[in-house]
Amino acid sequence: MRLEVKPYVLDFKFSARTSRGEIKKREVWFLKLTDEHENIGIGEVAPIQSLSPEVIEEIPQFLSQLSEPIKKLFKPENKEQVFETVAELVPATMPSIRFGMEMALLDLLNGGEKLIFTKNLGDIRIPINGLVWMGDERFMRDQIEQKLSDGFRCIKLKVGALDFDTEIAIIKSLRNISDDLIIRLDANGSFQTNDVLHKLKTLSKYNIHSIEQPIMPMQPEAMELICNRSEIPIALDEELIGITGSRDRVDLLQDLKPQYLVLKPTLHGGFNSVKEWIDLAEIHGIQWWVTSYLESNLGLNAIAQFTSQFLENKEFHGLGTGGLYHNNITSPIVVDNGYFSYAQSKVWGDV
């Protein structure tokens, strides 16, 4: 096989804000693997500055160094060989590269037609949440109105950027619209440990489904206390980043006892790694959902196909990020009435 690496910069339609700051552009690297029959598999390496474990400035050099060992490889014959190959090529400390390599090899394995985990995109229909980004109050309210108009039954609000009273007012008005609406919150670690339980108690008045990562990760005693005492179910997100050993993952789940896991293949080391988190979560009676993390439509497609394998999971997944960019890769992806699916009449654009 041979490897070609193509850098690409995705331009946001707006300044995407989290409690960590604004994101206006998104640098990714597309991996094109070609076999002896000139079939091409495409993967996407899409780390996030200050969140991904990788040193992002080192990624181009590492990818260039992959070319030689890849020339010596035979194309894997099944998924298991794909995962074994990637584990040998890429260290666990580079999760976004593992994700991109798994994606490219699986695409190549299945004929290079962007059918990563399925033979028929028309069978995929996944319930998803409508994501409301941080911003000023008017911006957030406008997004909420649009998501409700678009038919979303689950709304996920980023919180922690505005003052708490303003965010409470937004959440209260959203709850007043419907008792049946599912409201998720994502704090991205923005709450302080000295008042987090008070804030969670206040928020619990509005029938909140869950809150992701209320405090910053790597505070195990505080997080264990929060998971135990919070009146809102806790979903671990950033807490899972960098936890690669099976024993360490089991210890984390047994010690903290969260109610939910938020699983992101780009941040957690690819599909094989996320499958291990799923297996461990189900053993421990923990619910979970899968979320994309600002990948292009190519990465989003692979994550959605992976998610579609778990039809028994009735949670709303986080796969609605395909419309964020001016220059996203043209795709058949459709988000309609709160569901992720594919339009048979649309085709993929070139990379």
Computed CA radius of gyration, to the nearest angstrom: 20 Å
In terms of per-residue confidence, which ranges show pLDDT below 50 for 5 or more consecutive residues? none
Indicate the percent of residues in helices. Answer: 25-40%
What structural class do the secondary elements suggest?
Answer: alpha/beta
Apparent shape: globular
Distance between the termini: 19 Å
Number of strands: 13
| Helix and strand run | EEEHHHHEEHEHEHEHEHEHHEHEE
Query: Total domains, how many?
Result: 2
Q: Overview of this structure, please?
A:
With 351 residues, the chain is an alpha/beta fold. It folds into two domains: 2-109, 2-Layer Sandwich (Enolase-like, domain 1); 121-342, TIM Barrel, CATH 3.20.20.120. Helix content is 35%, strand content 21%. β2 (21-34) and β3 form a beta hairpin. The chain is globular. The mean pLDDT is 93.
Write a compact overview of the structure shown:
The chain is an alpha/beta fold and 351 residues long. The chain contains twelve helices and 13 strands.
Question: Could you name the key traits of this structure?
Answer:
13 strands; 351 residues; Enolase-like, domain 1; three-stranded antiparallel β-sheet; 2 domains; seven-stranded parallel β-sheet; globular; TIM Barrel; 12 helices; alpha/beta; 21% strand
